[in-house]
């Protein structure tokens, strides 16, 4: 999601709800987030999305390992300190497409895009 200049709790809640509306309900059952103030409306989000939300303990990145791994991979596109609010939606879309179609060793060199497509269209 792109939040140039506004990543308030309300903007994040609304953005998450909008993003989920484009996904099949059977592929999202829970969300794990850190203790950031942007998730202050997590109870409202959880109710409206019909999704469990888990908040990690402070300073416990291992509690959301796949997120931390993803952040590390994204640093190849956006080095630490990059102001993402200056990125355009087309550029973010290009990176998202490339990132989701990148083979992953732990997926036996499949890519997330392939696997999500199979899940969505073969169930």
Care to describe what's here?
The chain is globular. With 123 residues, the chain is mainly alpha-helical. Helix 1 (9-20) packs parallel to helix 2. Strands 1-2 form a two-stranded parallel sheet. 42% of the residues lie in helices and 7% in strands. It has five helices and two strands; from the N terminus they run αβαβααα. The longest helix is centred in the N-terminal third of the chain and has 12 residues, at 9-20. It has helices at residues 9-20, 42-49, 65-74, 89-100, 112-121, and strands at residues 30-33, 52-55. Strand 1 (30-33), helix 2 and strand 2 (52-55) form a beta-alpha-beta unit. It starts with 8 loop residues before the first helix and ends with a helix.
**End-to-end Cα distance:** 27 Å
User: What is the number of E strands?
Assistant: 2
Estimate what percentage of residues fall within beta strands. 5-15%
Shape: globular
Q: What profile does the largest beta sheet have?
A: 2 strands, parallel
Model regions low in confidence, pLDDT < 50 over at least 5 residues: none
Family: Belongs to the transposase IS30 family.
Protein name: IS30 family transposase
Domain Integrase catalytic: 1-120
Organism: Cryobacterium flavum
What descriptors fit this protein?
globular; 5 helices; Transposase-Integrase; mainly alpha; IS30 family transposase; 123 residues; RNaseH-like_sf; 42% helix; Integrase_cat-core
């Amino acid at each position: 999601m792109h939040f140039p200049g506004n990543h308030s709790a309300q903007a994040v809640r609304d953005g998450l709800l909008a993003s989920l509306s484009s996904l099949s309900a059977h592929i999202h059952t829970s969300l794990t987030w850190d203790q950031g103030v942007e998730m202050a409306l997590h109870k409202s989000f959880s109710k409206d999305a019909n999704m469990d939300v888990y908040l990690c303990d402070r300073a416990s990145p291992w509690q959301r390992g796949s997120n931390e791994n993803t952040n590390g991979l994204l640093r190849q596109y956006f080095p630490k300190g990059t102001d993402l609010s200056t990125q355009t939606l087309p550029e973010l879309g290009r990176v998202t497409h490339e990132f989701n179609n990148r083979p992953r060793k732990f997926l036996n060199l499949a890519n997330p895009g392939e696997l999500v497509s199979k899940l969505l269209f073969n169930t």
